[in-house]
Design brief:
Strand content: 5-15%
CATH class of the largest domain: Alpha Beta
Order of helices and strands: EHEEHHEHEHEHEHEHEHEH
Strand order of the largest sheet: 1-5-4-2-3
Number of domains: 2
Mean pLDDT: 89
Number of strands: 10
Number of helices: 10
Low-confidence stretches: none
Structural class: alpha/beta
Shape: globular
Amino acid sequence: MEPLIEAHELLRAFGTDANPFISNSPIAVEVNENPRVGYLSWHIPKSMLLNLYSDLLYGVGIIKGYYELMVDLVTRGIARERHVVLLDEIDNRHSAIAYMVFKALGFRHVSILNGSKISWLIHKGPLCTCNGHAYKGSFDPRNWLNITVNFKDYFVNFDQVYELVTNNNIGSNTLLIDTRSPCEYIGDDMDIWGHIPGAINMPWNLFLEPQTNRFRDHDEIRKVVDNYGLSPSDDIILYCRTGGRSALVWFVLTELLGFSRVRVYLGSWLDWLNHGAPIKRGKEP
């Protein structure tokens, strides 16, 4: 299953009588942090809603427990054997976090809608303004025995990053990449801006088309990565402000380019500040 799906492909897969309970029909899931502004204003017909900061995370940077997540998702009708298509309001940063969580939970058939809801509008897909859709499934714990779920393959925490920084291992053994804007990285305009010492700046929006928020062509993405001297074998940790932009870059490196050792500091900059850890300002890492 391709990690990216186009709007016209999703339209064709849905047809006119899409039913989330038909095994070969994708389940469209909108990931949102403000449903009233996003999902409830309009959404893809028969799509489901996941609130990023209540259904998947306990606020910024804290993932819910495996069992709690699986019970919630499966009882909503989102099962691991189904093809799940993720989208969000604008640029897929929330979809990217959800994608990582779904993959860590063992979902094998997960895609992100390229261009997200903007692409759906461009392709004149049907819209729904109802209060939402709820589907039901049954959770049987016996189906989830002997399942290995390791969030550590996808995410790192403050202690891990802090140890790397204080032991001067950033740049030698591990690359730390700040995916925020140069203004945030440099930190000239606001006291809360700056970067983690040793981090290089590779802005997330280098990988998106500015007008449509679609991912750039593979050759363009590869050129950006090559300009930063990154290799698929590099051990890389990504961060941003709250995890979304770095998750999107993780998706680019891992799913589109085949990098194998990339993880996200999900708490990111806000978590680093909350711990009172050292920061650096200016253009140098």
